[in-house]
Amino acid sequence: MGIFATLTRRGAQADVAPDVSAEDVHAILPARFEAVGEHLVAGRDASVACAMVGHEMARDGADLGEALDGLTTTYARVQGGEPDFRALRALCVAWSEETLGYLHQLSCENPLTGLASLAHLRARLSEVYRIAEQGGKSMTTSHALVVLDLPPLARATAWEGTFEWSLRLVRLAESARAVFPGDETICQVSERRLVVMAPRDDLLARRVGLLRSLVEDIAPDTGRARVWIEGLPSSDDAAGFLLGEIART
Predict the structure, then answer these.
(1) Is residue 111 part of a domain?
(2) Which terminus has fewer CB within 10 Å in the chain: N or C?
């Protein structure tokens, strides 16, 4: 109880406990919260460490209540008080993002945009490659990927950036659906990039031109959204590598 009492008394007198060693912090804090405790002892902003904990606990299957309990215990033992707003927000947002990302992988659609997930597009590509191979056709001539890329946002607050980015993604998705209203698969493969798996027919170039004109004013403050056609390779495995590269860029 000695170290707990010492930390609590110091926390009541100041925001940090500068003479508490890292070993002491590790000994008294909940698992995964050691880095948060080290930031508090050093008098640094702990929000980044809280976000890392939120992501990690969500990946490990811990619920949000467990994560908040750990954060509350950490602040109580190091500072003798409650977590501040920045720390709470960082942990909750990170936990939510990680959980939603997992759910999006399980689901065929992003709930915000209604677009197919990357996993769904990959499965759809494999299916079409298999059908083409059985019919003696080549995917290099029958289909192509149309890529839509948003430029990065200009500097903004976290809330403004999230809101504005969501609006731009929704507009980008609506434009893609307007140009490809049939059974084409439209997917969000990364934070700023959409992909359409479309037939490589006589109308493809015209459709891409129309799509460019629809999306050119979506991001006037940071530059035009880019749209281009990406040819598909001859094998399903190579298509998987290509899709991965598009998603990472």
Answers:
(1) no
(2) N
* Helices 64-79 & 47-59 angle (0-180, nearest 10): 140
Which CATH number goes with the domain that contains 167? 3.30.70.270
**43 CA to centre of own chain:** 30
pLDDT band at 173 (very low <50, low <70, confident <90, very high): confident
Q: What total of structural domains would you count in the chain?
A: 2
Q: Is the same domain home to 94 and 181?
A: no
Total residues found in the chain within this entry: 249
Containing structural domain, residue 60 = 2-105
Q: Are residues 123 and 244 in the same domain?
A: yes
The token duo for 95 is 């936990």
Report how far Cα 136 is from the mean position of its chain's Cα atoms. 39
Over the stretch 77-114, which tens digit does the pLDDT of each residue have?
Answer: 998 999 999 999 999 988 887 776 665 554 455 555 66
How far from 28 is each of 33, 72, 73, CA to CA, in Å?
10, 13, 10
pTM of the full predicted structure? 0.54
Which two tokens mark 111? 């709930």
Per-residue pLDDT at 18 exceeds 50? no
pLDDT at 13: 36
**142 and 173 belong to one structural domain:** yes
With H, G, I as helix, E, B as strand and everything else as coil, classify residue 111. Answer: coil
Which three-class secondary structure state does DSSP give residue 241? helix
**Dist CA 218 CA 33 (whole Å):** 41
